[in-house]
Write a structure and sequence with these properties.
seven-stranded mixed sheet; 3 helices; two-stranded antiparallel sheet; alpha+beta; 13 strands
Length: about 240
């Protein structure tokens, strides 16, 4: 995973920038004191937190660019990811991780229905403020229709609902999604042409993102190209 290029950095998980311009004019000592205070604020805000490297916008790839819709062959993708499709959700092991993806500062939708055969009549479809929601399979499907790893809503929450404890990985989810994920590429965006930065719970991650485990309440952020003003560092609570 490449790091962003450039000297300016941003704090992770902050809703506002701490690079402020002092507008008030005053004496030299007043301006110095104000500048020092801003440095203290920046240090307190960013000290101990990872920082997002500034980077140039990622160029549009020849193929594999966003948007990345849910695949039309979910059962094949489930098997390709190494899972055995099942007939309904099991809640013996029930955990949630959250995924944010940004391309040139813009959020990328993680679609609903990944890992689910939404065409099966036993799969319930309801509407939410974000769009269609899939799941709530009761009674079970007549044929296997869902993966233990899936999305119900287009909100970035990755659900693991299985009969036994087995943490899944981000790489398995991207296989189900049908989007490439390696140490060099996300979809069609590849380094060194595109900067790719990965954060796990607000900490920079430099290994292969496919190996990241989807443990409960984990926040994963993938930043491609120029970063957004804020990169989430915590699992969303609302």
């Amino acid at each position: 995973m490449t790091q962003g290029r450039g000297g300016t950095r941003r704090c992770v998980g902050r809703g506002r920038s701490y690079h402020r311009t002092m507008m008030r004019r005053g004496s030299l000592s007043g301006r110095f004191s104000g500048a020092l205070a801003l440095l203290v604020i920046a240090f307190v805000a960013c000290h101990g937190s990872p920082q997002v490297q500034e980077a140039k916008p990622a160029p549009e790839p020849a193929s594999g660019g966003v948007p990345w819709p849910a695949p039309s062959d979910p059962l094949d993708r489930i098997v390709a990811a190494g899972f055995e499709p099942i007939t309904h959700e099991f809640l013996n092991y029930h955990v949630h991780a959250h995924l944010d993806v940004f391309v040139n500062g813009e959020p990328v939708e993680v679609p609903a229905g990944i890992g689910i055969n939404i065409a099966d009549p036993a799969v319930h479809t309801t509407q939410s403020a974000l769009g269609p929601t899939y799941g709530g399979i009761d009674p079970p499907c007549a044929q296997p229709c869902i993966s233990p790893l899936h999305t119900h809503d287009p909100d970035g929450i990755l659900h693991t609902e299985s009969a036994k404890e087995h943490p899944n990985t981000l790489g398995e989810f991207f296989i189900e999604w049908g989007v490439a994920l390696t140490a060099e590429c996300v979809g069609g965006y590849c380094s060194p042409d595109a900067s790719i930065q990965v954060f796990v719970d607000g900490k920079a991650y430099t290994g292969d993102p496919a190996d990241i485990q989807l443990t409960d309440m984990r926040e994963i952020a993938i930043v491609i190209g120029s970063p957004p003003d804020e990169v989430p560092s915590k699992f969303p609570t609302a």
